[in-house]
Specification:
With 216 residues, this protein is an alpha+beta fold. The protein folds into two domains: 80 residues, Glutaredoxin (3-Layer(aba) Sandwich), CATH 3.40.30.10; 121 residues, Glutathione S-transferase Yfyf (Class Pi), Chain A, domain 2 (Up-down Bundle). It has nine helices and four strands, in the order βαβαββααααααα. It has a four-stranded mixed beta sheet with strand order 2-1-3-4, with helices on one face. α1 runs parallel beside α3, α4 packs antiparallel against α6 and α6 packs antiparallel against α7. The protein starts with a strand and ends in a 13-residue tail after the last helix.
Length: 216
């Protein structure tokens, strides 16, 4: 069985949970307290020297790391059901939509960035929440504009089945929603995220639905 090193609040680990569920793959999750510094322990550094989650072990080599690389590996090793479309241009589009969230928005929200904002600039929790919501909103608005412009047929971001873009954008939406963000002016994303919430493989991966998550 695969072993996923994650944290219930990690949006990157959430992506991997969804992909594993879509692929129908069993796994055990090992919690790493990234807000208490456990990622810097010798045991955690042996799994991922970057001191971050997620990491994925499948028993055939060193742990895989970086959520997007893990999702690509899952797609290549377990191709059905597909997370990427069959045509090259469609694959590029789906990857680009995913990277709006994973490469442009999410890196500005991670614990090490928030810690630096607090230590160097004195940002308190209200300022950190506002910072995070701002960059999440920018990413979601950009994705919405692409969905509106391209008008690719299908109910999901690209076609009639969930894929890589839906996974990664839904993870960003989860963090955005927890910080009070809305989907005003984003009808295409609202449609996609309603489908995500209706799919237990997506909904069960949400940070607020993990063991020991605070009750709403």
């Amino acid at each position: 069985m695969m072993r996923l090193y994650g944290n219930r609040r990690s949006l990157a680990a959430m992506r991997v949970r969804i992909a594993l569920a879509l692929k129908g793959l069993a796994y055990e999750e090992v919690g790493v307290d990234i807000f208490g510094g456990e990622q810097f322990s010798p045991e955690s550094l042996a799994v991922n020297p970057q001191a971050a989650v997620p990491a994925l072990e499948d028993g055939s080599g060193p742990p895989l790391f970086q959520s997007m690389a893990i999702l690509e590996w899952l797609e290549e090793t377990h191709p059905a059901p597909a997370l990427l479309p069959g045509d090259l241009r469609g694959r590029a589009r789906v990857r680009a939509l995913a990277l709006i969230a994973a490469a442009d928005s999410h890196p500005l929200l991670v614990p090490r960035v928030r810690a630096r904002l607090g230590a160097q600039f004195g940002a308190g929790e209200p300022q950190l929440v506002d910072w995070s919501r701002h960059f999440m909103q920018l990413g979601l608005l950009a994705a919405e504009a692409h969905l509106a412009r391209d008008a690719v047929p299908g109910a999901w971001c690209h076609g009639d089945a969930p894929g890589l873009a839906d996974i990664v954008l839904y993870s960003l939406r989860a963090g955005h929603e927890q910080r009070g963000g809305t989907l005003d002016g984003m009808p295409n994303l609202a449609r996609v995220f309603a489908l995500c919430e209706a799919d237990p493989r997506f909904a069960a991966a949400h940070p607020l639905r993990q063991p020991r998550a605070p009750k709403p």
